[in-house]
Amino acid sequence: MSADLNGTQKAVRSHPPAFDIRVDRVPIPKVEHPDDAIVKIRLAGLCGSDLHVFRGHEDVHEVLTCGHEFLGEVIALGESFKPGSDRRPPLYSSLKVGDTVIAPFTVSCGECHFCRIGFTCRCERNMLFGTPATPGGQAQYVRVPFAGGTLYNLSSIAKAASTMRGNINSIADTSLLLLCDNLPTGVFAAFQALSHPKFLPMSTGLPYPLSSLGASAESEALTLLPEDRALTIAVVGLGPVGMCASIALLDMLGARQLKYKVVAIEPVEARRKRMEAIFSIISKTEKGFGEYVVADIEIGKALVKEWTGGIGCNAVIEVVGNPSALTLAYDVVRPFGGIHSIGVHQEPMMPFQGRQLYDKNVSFDFGRCPVRAMLPMALDLLLRRQDIFGTVGGDGSLIEKVVSIDEAAKAYEEFNTGKCNKTIFDPWR
Amino acid sequence: MSADLNGTQKAVRSHPPAFDIRVDRVPIPKVEHPDDAIVKIRLAGLCGSDLHVFRGHEDVHEVLTCGHEFLGEVIALGESFKPGSDRRPPLYSSLKVGDTVIAPFTVSCGECHFCRIGFTCRCERNMLFGTPATPGGQAQYVRVPFAGGTLYNLSSIAKAASTMRGNINSIADTSLLLLCDNLPTGVFAAFQALSHPKFLPMSTGLPYPLSSLGASAESEALTLLPEDRALTIAVVGLGPVGMCASIALLDMLGARQLKYKVVAIEPVEARRKRMEAIFSIISKTEKGFGEYVVADIEIGKALVKEWTGGIGCNAVIEVVGNPSALTLAYDVVRPFGGIHSIGVHQEPMMPFQGRQLYDKNVSFDFGRCPVRAMLPMALDLLLRRQDIFGTVGGDGSLIEKVVSIDEAAKAYEEFNTGKCNKTIFDPWR
């Protein structure tokens, strides 16, 4: 209990029904439960899904503290973290006051079935930051429930033996903040596409179903030709998550030495320009395996047709979350292709007849990223691609700017109307 | 050209618009293309999907010869099969007059990208038997296009070295006929469920995403408990394919030594009774790993709730093909569960809001079985489970009866109204 936690703090709050963001003074949160941590925020991100509350789409009737991306320092811990507290996972005993931490956008206890198997975003005690029950991180302090399961302890990872992990100390906070949501979500989307059984014949060189059984299986099967393994993949939507998904995808394809053509489809020109600048950075190091093009919807569709002789993409990563994005994904996917939808969908019904899905043997993955489980993979990519993730404000960087928390109302307004891209709040500036 | 192929033959034909099956005399088919084979039919199956044409759901305005399940003997071959024909896959040079063959329900060339990677049902030259363009096998003779790719040559497999495969000679034709559609489709459904990345934490014991990367990956992850790996799986629909899917599922779970509870949900009592009889045969050899229950819809839902404390099944195999079956599958699946839909869906739209799918992190596999690619796995199961697949007419057998082709009209009528189960036609009786 090192800080004076009896005062008030600044917090970005959404006032219902919609479009009303204010920076209010509210009490500094206190430990309410033995598993709680209080984190002093160093930086907090503004995310596309914050706009659901801003636009009044979430049926919220209370004032709430926004934000589910934050990086900070642990300043207080509940009783569960005291040395000698037994029967808790190691995550509880290793977290200390003074540690630098980030949180995924959902609370996860680290102790239930879903946490153990890695599906942390569906933890049985799962709560989303930035809701009435769980005040968010766009503030100076935040209370983190089930902190031993939820928080990713960057200090303890930095101390670990691995040389690469040791580099965490030299990484800017703005860069580390991408680990809360956008980067792991992009990694998850790309990983789902490349891990799907319908994708494996291309990546393993074995025909289905041997591709899912491994090379030791008995084979009466045909042999793949090199051209069978040439991949075509589409990314639909180039907001921050779509950009991260594209970068992760190229990284994974390069690591597997697969030949690919990737088209990133996005109607907004400013986003296309930003992605093109990022692609030109990637092309300095990822040579010889693939081709990537940024296109609007019509050009993107035409390109897929031309590249594949009309049969379509092996996989589509959908990062928008509405029926027209799903329809576009269906239009450009080939038979036995996968549609990996990381977009946050709302009330509209699925825009497909059952017969359409049967006729193309389509597979779908839906749903939110289990960030806590994806963080090691995301951190690995973040550390290796500091040429992209380490910069702020350039053409080739994901993050557009860091502003004072006092400018939150303006930042929401600009982000909502597409006038600016990824924005980060400094609550002490 | 050993037989007199200039005469006429009996064929089961559907006369539009619907519900009009006749046994007509039509010309015996001839080789029309160098890749053709003419097969003299020994047995032909009546399949649930034959009922789509029977009921007039397929928008067919011509008389057509029905049926896509047949076993027979090659009696004529086109020029492509002559010794010395080069640049064709081995499948073409090894097929001989006199060979016993079966065909999957779709033609596959064996030479295109989709055939090479094992997605044979979406072959670029794919045609469905029993359509106006490709007369079916409920006849005395059938023409098989792209026969070197399409036909599965049981004679050459029987000659191969493996002892198990050598047993093919002792297997009844009625049993082998199950390889055309029902059995490989059931195997495909079960295999999709068990191969999905969201299922792998339970089968590998590694948390996601390590479960998809293999044990060699770096691990900061939690450890699974034995209870995390206890599986609950539902099969929705117990027609012949649903029964085969259930048998294949239990076989695969047993082979992997996974602990399971399987509920097979079916509203029709006669089908439940048949499946219970089959389960009691399986339980004689599959001991100690699992529990399986056959239930109607309400009891099935209650059972899943009870077994899983309300969280739902790890996977659902949907073998019906309509929106209410999909809705039931969604209701009983847990977050991060897979819905593997092998049912033939029609015009109705998908009965889901995008948000429902996001909120449960659901994955779907849709579409038809690539039978040609699944045949080795299906044959292996067929040979090992002759106690089930080798019988006709008992409580615990899939096949209810073998009738003369002359009784086709009555058989369609009875099958359509649920008065009989799997029926096979003998065109020479």
TrEMBL record, chains A, B:
<dbReference type="InterPro" id="IPR013154">
    <property type="entry name" value="ADH-like_N"/>
</dbReference>
<dbReference type="Pfam" id="PF00107">
    <property type="entry name" value="ADH_zinc_N"/>
</dbReference>
<dbReference type="InterPro" id="IPR013149">
    <property type="entry name" value="ADH-like_C"/>
</dbReference>
<dbReference type="InterPro" id="IPR036291">
    <property type="entry name" value="NAD(P)-bd_dom_sf"/>
</dbReference>
<feature type="domain" description="Alcohol dehydrogenase-like N-terminal">
    <location>
        <begin position="34"/>
        <end position="146"/>
    </location>
</feature>
<keyword id="KW-0479">Metal-binding</keyword>
<feature type="domain" description="Alcohol dehydrogenase-like C-terminal">
    <location>
        <begin position="241"/>
        <end position="364"/>
    </location>
</feature>
<dbReference type="Pfam" id="PF08240">
    <property type="entry name" value="ADH_N"/>
</dbReference>
<dbReference type="GO" id="GO:0046872">
    <property type="term" value="F:metal ion binding"/>
</dbReference>
<keyword id="KW-0862">Zinc</keyword>
<dbReference type="InterPro" id="IPR011032">
    <property type="entry name" value="GroES-like_sf"/>
</dbReference>
<protein>
    <recommendedName>
        <fullName>Alcohol dehydrogenase</fullName>
    </recommendedName>
</protein>
